[in-house]
Amino acid sequence: MENSPLQVLTVPTAPYPDQRPGTSGLRKRVYVFQTRRNYLHNFIQSIFSSIDLRDRQGSTMVVGGDGRFFNRTAIEVIVQMAAANGVGRLIIGHHGIMSTPAISCVIRKFKAIGGFILTASHNPGGPDGDFGIKFNTANGGPAKEAVTNKIFQISRTIEEFAICPGLRVDLTTLGKQMFDLENKFKPFTVEIVDSVESYANLLRNIFDFAALKELLSGENCIKIRLDAMHGVVGPYVSKILCEELGCPANSAINCVPLEDFGGQHPDPNPTYATDLVDSMRDGHYDFGAAFDGDGDRNMILGKHGFFVTPSDSVAVIADNIFCIPYFQHTGVRGFARSMPTSSALDRVAKATKIELYETPTGWKFFGNLMDAGMLSLCGEESFGTGGDHIREKDGLWAVLAWLSILATRRQRVEDIVKDHWIKYGRNYFTRYDYENVDIDAACEMMEDLEIMIADKSFIRQRFAVEDKIYQVERADNFEYTDPADSTISRNQGLRIIFSDGSRIIYRLSGTGSDGATVRIYIDSYEKEHIFEDTQVMLAPLATIALKISQLHHRTGRSGPSVIT
């Protein structure tokens, strides 16, 4: 406890017009937060001001981040402003580090009113990289649109913020720190907690750790390779997979969180997780996985680097869901996928007579269904998979789900996936990302594209590429009515659906910090030809997608930045 009460100040400020949170919070280049006066303070105050004072007074909130550059600076400001804004207790991860799934877990466990997640997810870090702030609400999930809109409106008119500039917290020491503030009856408490333990305990109650330990360190154990990509998951992998489940320490690579992720792009896909992909090629390892910066995304690989698409991953987990003890106890309430994700999950839902929901991109839509007791398992094509144990996608949970399937079925990853295709047919799926495109050119292209597909003459148009002919059956701008609360979300992506069920989808992504990212998703179902090369099978649809949009001409790009 400090000797004399700390002073609370009200500081005048001026608003910025560009603090609208996207699907994953506010993401900008680090230099924006560093060089624009009070830019960080304004956004933090806008979040606090969006919460009713009666709810805020004496409340508990959670803070953590993926350890990227500017993390500690932002935490210091959040602590000082939380104290000044009436928050009673902050729970912070040791050294300020806590994965996004763990923060969701801790918010729910301690009945906090919300939490600050300091991450730009899979975007690069370091002084020249990105930084982000995401606000999660009391359910542990991302704030809904009504909340983020309120935060944005406040940020546009903000005139002052409250702060306690003399307050200093030691992030290196576990335990409680208490501070007396001017004109406050109760001390302000900061609790530094073990970043892993609450989350690890949750996983122990979901999975059969004894069976997993036998799989990973028993007599007939499999060899696995896990790449934390110098993100936040490193300590979780070391503690849970290595120390507790018995994996050799050298099974895990890049496990020390670094402010710049070792100069790499912490994005778990075949393009960026090259350390893992290269190490899997020779067949030494039976199972591989990579995680992104904040630990909510995952990539699954089998022996010799066999790649499991995220769309297939959630479908396979759904088809084997009772390999996970948690679902044996709770039952399965529903499945869901984001609209751009392939419809592989739909086929499992239909066969098992379990309700399937198609939502816009953004985990908050899944969270709403979970809160209503309608959803148990969900996934996105952007390497996100999760269950209703928390309200975020969860990379480590997905890996343990896959390992639970391997422990039960005792087959190779590749054989499990190929058996799935034989049973259900295969959805060939790919995504083309055009990053850092001029935002005006991107918006103009999307507007013209929407006008084209909305014209009645577009329906039933035929497109021929080589010996393939595709006829348009339906085209629209995806609109979602939430079955839990009837809220409507419009303009969620342009869809062209052909008579054979194939789909082309165009979206502008909201997760970048610079320019625009145009995404083209291509999804095509095959019952017979299930063992072909994805890009070869989808080449005709890719040609059609580029022809319709004229994307290369409109954006000046000759090809995508990333293909997944």
UniProtKB/TrEMBL annotation:
<dbReference type="InterPro" id="IPR036900">
    <property type="entry name" value="A-D-PHexomutase_C_sf"/>
</dbReference>
<dbReference type="InterPro" id="IPR005846">
    <property type="entry name" value="A-D-PHexomutase_a/b/a-III"/>
</dbReference>
<dbReference type="GO" id="GO:0005829">
    <property type="term" value="C:cytosol"/>
</dbReference>
<dbReference type="Pfam" id="PF02878">
    <property type="entry name" value="PGM_PMM_I"/>
</dbReference>
<dbReference type="InterPro" id="IPR005845">
    <property type="entry name" value="A-D-PHexomutase_a/b/a-II"/>
</dbReference>
<feature type="domain" description="Alpha-D-phosphohexomutase alpha/beta/alpha">
    <location>
        <begin position="19"/>
        <end position="160"/>
    </location>
</feature>
<dbReference type="Pfam" id="PF02879">
    <property type="entry name" value="PGM_PMM_II"/>
</dbReference>
<feature type="domain" description="Alpha-D-phosphohexomutase alpha/beta/alpha">
    <location>
        <begin position="328"/>
        <end position="424"/>
    </location>
</feature>
<protein>
    <submittedName>
        <fullName>Phosphoglucomutase-1-like</fullName>
    </submittedName>
</protein>
<comment type="similarity">
    <text>Belongs to the phosphohexose mutase family.</text>
</comment>
<dbReference type="InterPro" id="IPR016055">
    <property type="entry name" value="A-D-PHexomutase_a/b/a-I/II/III"/>
</dbReference>
<dbReference type="InterPro" id="IPR045244">
    <property type="entry name" value="PGM"/>
</dbReference>
<dbReference type="Pfam" id="PF02880">
    <property type="entry name" value="PGM_PMM_III"/>
</dbReference>
<dbReference type="GO" id="GO:0000287">
    <property type="term" value="F:magnesium ion binding"/>
</dbReference>
<dbReference type="GO" id="GO:0005975">
    <property type="term" value="P:carbohydrate metabolic process"/>
</dbReference>
<dbReference type="InterPro" id="IPR005844">
    <property type="entry name" value="A-D-PHexomutase_a/b/a-I"/>
</dbReference>
<keyword id="KW-0460">Magnesium</keyword>
<dbReference type="InterPro" id="IPR016066">
    <property type="entry name" value="A-D-PHexomutase_CS"/>
</dbReference>
<dbReference type="Pfam" id="PF24947">
    <property type="entry name" value="PGM1_C_vert_fung"/>
</dbReference>
<keyword id="KW-0479">Metal-binding</keyword>
<dbReference type="GO" id="GO:0004614">
    <property type="term" value="F:phosphoglucomutase activity"/>
</dbReference>
<keyword id="KW-0963">Cytoplasm</keyword>
<dbReference type="InterPro" id="IPR005841">
    <property type="entry name" value="Alpha-D-phosphohexomutase_SF"/>
</dbReference>
<keyword id="KW-0597">Phosphoprotein</keyword>
<feature type="domain" description="Alpha-D-phosphohexomutase alpha/beta/alpha">
    <location>
        <begin position="198"/>
        <end position="303"/>
    </location>
</feature>
